[in-house]
Amino acid sequence: MRREIREELKDRGFSRRDFARLAALMTAGASLPFYNESALAQDLKAIGRIPTDAVKINANENPMGPCPAAIEAITAIVRQGGRYLFEQTYAFVEAMAQAEGVPEDHVLPFPGSSDPLHRAVLAFTAPTRPLVTANPGYEAPEKAAQFIGARTIQVPLRKDYSHDPKGMVEAGPNAGVIYVCNPNNPTGTVTRREDLDYIVANKPKGCVVLIDEAYIHFTTATSPATDLVAAGKDVIVLRTFSKLYGMAGLRAGAAIARPDLLEKLRNYGGLGIMPATGMAGAVASLKDRSLVAERRKVVADIREDLCAWMQKKGYGFIPSEANMILVDGRRPGRQMARDMIAYKVAVGRAWPALPNHVRVTIGTRDEMARFKVALERVMEA
Fold it and tell me: Which residues, including other chains, have CB under 8 Å from residue 228's CB and lie 6 or more apart?
């Protein structure tokens, strides 16, 4: 462990006894014991093995898959798979920087966005610098904080299920990271831009605002936060191509931030070569200027049809701006998941703050038609 890193860890409240364990973390990468994105995406304990012919609307995947241009680019790059193809990563950084209006040294590529999310928590929280997050919210950052002994402070969402900016700032006067998922996972609700600006303007000194924009492309109700990065703020924006772009299995994403903040992420696990298929597909996706709007409309149309049907049936749900919706199953979430899988429909998990709500991904029209049939049978049983 380099001397400057040891000094930085001491400043964050870690003891010398922690150094060996943290040194191991810095070389562990994706083998970290809390790095388990697939386990978070679906609660397999609730439903067991999912039948191969089941409707899988449990993991916020996009059944549309990669766009045609991305498929073409991926297919072409596979033929060159015997080489490392570093240039694909460089092309991705260039395309991402141009799309987001930031310098190229403000983009650090990753295989998805979960890796940099964990790294940010490891890099900026500590026993003396807690993580502040929303409740309910995505649990991955809390698991990373717990592993290094950093406290997590959960702040309830507001009545409209948006983040509470004042509550988050006041809850952690010495916070190391304030985490905002926007739109939020699992509620799919949007936090307004003025609320993000409030957090950035009033956060504790030295605190990093970690803005997870995995679902940002599904909404027009708020603007991306990458301009805060361009303005030099203490902000890290996370992006992934797993959601709207339909590349969950191909692993492409990025952290967007000032170079000094990105350098701290590099300390935890280093950076290996990115999958050439993911980088090629991501570049092709970014070049398709109509893709986001087209797919946003497809998802919104299916989502609104589902919501209108549930409202007519009298079923409870939380309105969403993303590719998911929380449905009130009127019973514990795991029981709801088991009841639905009996009809070969796999739905997502529940959160402690909303124990009777299960997260349902917006699938194809045919998939949602099967979901309606199963839901009606379960709810009316």
Answer: 196, 197, 200, 209, 211, 235, 237
Cα Rg, the chain, nearest whole Å: 21
Please list, residue by residue across 364-380, b when 16 or more beta carbons sit within 10 angstroms of its beta carbon and e when fewer do: eeebbebbbebbeebbe
The confidence band for 172, taking pLDDT boundaries of 50, 70 and 90, is very high
What is the SS3 assignment for 124-163? HCECCECEEEEECCCCHHHHHHHHCCCCEEEEECCCCCCC
Does the pTM of the predicted model rise above 0.85?
Answer: yes
Phi, psi of 117 (to 5 degrees): -60, -50
Provide the sign of the torsion angle of the four alpha carbons 303, 215, 41, 247, taken in this order.
positive
Model pLDDT for residues 295-312, shown as the tens digit of each residue: 999 999 999 999 999 999
**Alpha-carbon distance 319 to 308, whole Å?**
10
Closest by CA position to 267, among listed 77, 5, 80? 5
pLDDT in tens, 144-165: 999 899 999 999 999 999 999 9
Phi first, then psi, for residue 353 (nearest 5°) are -70, -25
What residues does 110 pair with on adjacent strands?
253
C-beta of residue 298 within 8 angstroms of C-beta of residue 306: no
Q: Please choose, from the candidates 265, 263, 218, the residue with its C-alpha nearest in 3D space to the C-alpha of residue 242.
A: 218
55-57 vs 345-347, strand pairing mode:
parallel
Which structure tokens are listed for 249?
């299995």
Q: DSSP E strands: which ranges in the chain?
A: 55-57, 107-110, 131-135, 152-156, 177-181, 208-212, 235-240, 253-256, 317-318, 324-328, 345-347, 357-361
Q: Among all chains, which residue has been given the structure tokens 């809850």?
A: 171
CB atoms within 10 A of CB 381: 6
